[in-house]
Design goal:
Radius of gyration: 20 Å
Structural class: alpha/beta
Mean pLDDT: 95
Low-confidence stretches: none
Helix content: 25-40%
Strand order of the largest sheet: 4-5-16-13-14-15
Strand content: 15-25%
Largest sheet: 6 strands, mixed
CATH topology of one domain: Rossmann fold
CATH class of one domain: Alpha Beta
Number of helices: 14
Length: 427
């Protein structure tokens, strides 16, 4: 369909310097201290476009050039079951997953689809290079599905131990290539392989948290809440691996405040990790902008223990200006831990009280909310947003599925030249 690209420019969070996007700008071209850049949209008002389907209703606040097929937006509703269980009057659940009765139809059951549809729509349709995506699991599934549906070539780097996350309703298009790092490796090792591959000019990195399209795609969750509740939440809960989704939510809360239509941004950002992988928790509780020391072998071991493996990231955007540390600090937020037993409890309890299943990562967020209620961190009458970032897999997979096996398994210690050569041979 015909679509006018969204008008915007970029701003350096640290310095305030404004500049134009050159197409795939991930940082201030003038350099300086490490800092995220943000999109400043021509349309300063939040006006969903009902002529566009799915996620692209929010295209006015997404840095996109085109519309892709088969997108779905997050769904926000006022909770009854969980709200009663926790004794909360104004609990809203923003759900990204598969639950048709709620209107949630994300085929991969993960809010990572919001990233994929935004990032891939930021790409020039005539791009000749091949995109590289690094993932711990859910991002891989989302990008694989969206790229397959829209015939966009991609190389996805993922730990082989996360292979169980690569399920799909039907076989993927051959434009999707999966490169795994061996059993025992983790997400950081997949990042290393992707960075080595990107040394060849025929490939380019998606960019992670530095990509404004990723953050503003994920930030549609808070836009969904604003439509449902007519205001900015008082408290926001999400489980995090990198923390990018929480950063994105806070950025959009700031944009909503600037419109003058949704009240003040007093939103406190609360995030959760799955113990014993607690890098962000340890860093925050130490009062440090810098990440706490983490032995690589301990990081891999802890990543292997946790249920919510997508929450294990040894290189989160925590310290960078505009990153997770700044988001927690500015919002007056905090970090919680949820162990495997707590996650299992809330996986069963949530299904009983809300009627659909959540992925383990989402239940880490539910556990954090329950802890916050118990400790008096949130009040009974506050407007609370619980970002349930994935679920509905039991129903979705009941309709049949196939697994995508790796096209290659590569040791992250291999020289870049060998990695590039072996990946190129796939095409």
């Amino acid at each position: 369909m015909r679509f006018k690209p969204t008008g915007y420019h970029l701003i350096n969070v640290s310095t305030g310097r404004e500049f134009e996007d050159r197409g795939w700008t991930l940082s201030d071209p003038l350099g300086g201290a490490p800092s995220l850049v943000r999109a400043v949209y021509e349309n300063r008002k939040f006006v969903p476009n009902d002529s566009l389907e799915g996620l692209y209703r929010y295209a006015g606040w997404m840095p996109v050039r085109r519309i892709l097929r088969k997108s779905c937006a997050p769904v926000t509703y006022r909770s009854k079951g969980l709200a009663k269980t926790l004794g909360l009057e104004n609990l809203y659940i923003t759900f990204s997953g598969w639950c048709p009765r709620l209107g949630a139809k994300m085929k991969t059951c993960s809010f990572k689809e919001t990233e994929a549809y935004s990032i891939l729509a930021r790409m020039d349709g005539k791009e000749k290079r091949t995109l590289i995506v690094q993932s711990a699991g859910n991002t891989a599934r989302a990008f694989a599905q969206v790229c397959s549906d829209n015939k966009i070539p991609v190389v996805i780097c993922i730990p082989q131990d996360s292979g169980h996350d690569l399920w799909f309703r039907r076989r993927l298009d051959k434009c999707v290539k999966l490169v795994a790092v061996p059993h025992g490796c983790d997400y950081y090792d997949a990042i290393v392989v992707g960075e080595k591959l990107a040394q060849d000019p025929s490939f380019f990195l998606e960019g992670g948290a530095k990509n404004v399209a990723r953050r503003d795609g994920m930030g549609t969750t808070i836009l969904s809440f604003a439509e449902a509740a007519g205001r900015i939440p008082d408290a926001y809960f999400q489980a995090v691996g990198s923390g990018t989704g929480a950063i994105a939510a806070y950025e959009n809360a700031c944009r909503l405040e600037a419109t003058g239509d949704f009240g003040k941004n007093n939103m406190r950002v609360y995030v959760a990790q799955n113990a014993p992988f607690s890098l962000i928790y340890d860093s925050w509780k130490a009062g440090s902008r810098e990440l706490a020391p983490l032995d690589p072998e301990k990081g891999r071991r802890d990543a292997g223990i946790i249920l919510a493996k997508v929450l294990a990231n040894r290189k989160p955007p925590y310290s960078i200006a505009g990153g997770l540390y700044d988001t927690l600090k500015e919002s007056g937020g905090d970090v919680f831990l949820a162990d495997n037993d707590s996650i299992m409890y809330w996986m069963m309890k949530f299904r009983n009280v809300e009627g659909y299943d959540l992925l383990p990562a989402s239940c880490a967020a539910v556990s954090a909310l329950a802890q916050a209620v118990e400790k008096g961190v949130v009040s009974r009458d506050e407007f609370i947003m619980l970002n349930c970032t994935g679920g509905g897999t039991l129903l979705a997979m009941s309709k049949g599925y196939v697994f995508k096996e790796p096209d290659l398994v590569l040791d992250p210690d291999l020289p870049a030249e060998e990695i590039i050569s072996r990946v190129k041979a796939l095409f």
